[in-house]
Amino acid sequence: MTKELGHIPVNIITGFLGSGKTTLLQRLLNSDEFADTAVLINEFGEVGLDHHLLEEIDENTLLLQSGCICCTIRGDLKDAIRDLYSRRERGEIPAFRRLVVETTGLADPAPILATITSEPVIRHHFRLGNVITTVDAVNVVMQLRRQPESVKQVAVADRIVLTKTDLAKPDVVKKARDAVRRVNPAAPLIESANAPVDPSLLLAHDIHDDSHKLAEVARWLEATRHDDHHERPHRHDANRHDARITAFALVFERPMDWTAFGIWLTMLLQSRGEDVLRVKGILNVVGVPTPVVIHGVQHIVHPPVHMKKWPDDDKRSRIVFIVRDISKEEIANSLSAFNRLARDLDRNHDAA
Amino acid sequence: MSASPEAFGGRQGVVPRRQERLYRVKLINEILKSFALRLDDWQGQSFILSSRTGKTEIVDDLMAVWPAAEKMIGRQLDPMDPALLAHLRHQTMGH
Fold first, then answer.
1. Is the pTM of this model over 0.80?
2. b/e for A277-306, b at 16 or more Cβ within 10 A?
3. Do B80 and A118 count as a contact with CB atoms less than 8 A apart?
4. I need a surface site. Which of A166, A195, A295, B68 has the fewest CB within 10 A?
5. Spatial distance between the Cα atoms of A298 and A114, rounded to a whole number of angstroms
6. Cβ B3–A304 below 8 Å, yes or no?
């Protein structure tokens, strides 16, 4: 959105313990293009190592004081970002053009995203950029089964970096890729061990970047083409966290009523936001010739992004959902019913 | 709920603001009926949510309707609720 162009993008780097967040961060920040990036890290977990490495990387590093960002330090994260911004404004630190927040390995990323998108002062100056999740090819299959935080970290990602592929056999890497794809089919999956990572693809190419938003939406939609492959039966197995997550794409033949969609999505997020890990898609809205892009993470809905044109010849609404304990049919039936109701009201109104 | 207030501000400028507001209220009321609740426009500025038992609350925007409604009836308003969907099916089949 135009309104957000002047905002400083905030990237989140998350990933389970030992999955290579800091190594990735170092590689990204070595790039000249991202030299003016401020970094916030958190001291829980990989304690001293993170601290020393990052201090060498960037003088703008501010170490958060206590425990885990997600629950106890949400206030600290807020204060840290606000403090960074004031120091930037006063000229005490260079005018950084991007902020990266590295979470702890055990963090649930959702509250961190919420802090950035909802805190009144922060959202006035910053906007959420790509969420980058590192996953360790050797351990990710086990982590996704056992650790709910790990599933969430993968589900909310805009970019997934598969690390340590050089330490794993090809069949292990394949299983890791498959497991990650089942939880999040829509994010580009990049292997970092054998090739240089492209910092721009990870950090900057996002839905708010005019020159890349078409490509970004095309990437999401790519996932909808392989939907049958990725979709899994709806199961309730409390011991396997990844088994409760389903990723699927819905395609709607008829144009979407914007008001009905807004009512439906806000109602869904209020009642089931915890279980809606990710929603993103492109809508063919009644009365609007160009597509409208929507995206949300858990309880957060971003302002819609208007596209100048469709990414391909398909002009149907297509939405990717990553949800927990909700089936594709439930979502499809419910959204269709709301849209049908709107059509019906419109028709009656026209007839009156 | 922390959605940007501008996220669902209106139908993209295709219809006048007032008309859009009335349409939104009408649509929400079709949903709220199923939960014995009702929404009314309040001077074009905010909305009044009321229950059949006489409870009322003023809400500022669409985002605020759901938490207020939830508090009023003491349970969540799930858009996938089978009773709600049956009610909507009945509504649309009636025409």
1. no
2. bbbbbbbbbbebeebbbbbbbbbbbbbbbe
3. no
4. A195
5. 9
6. no
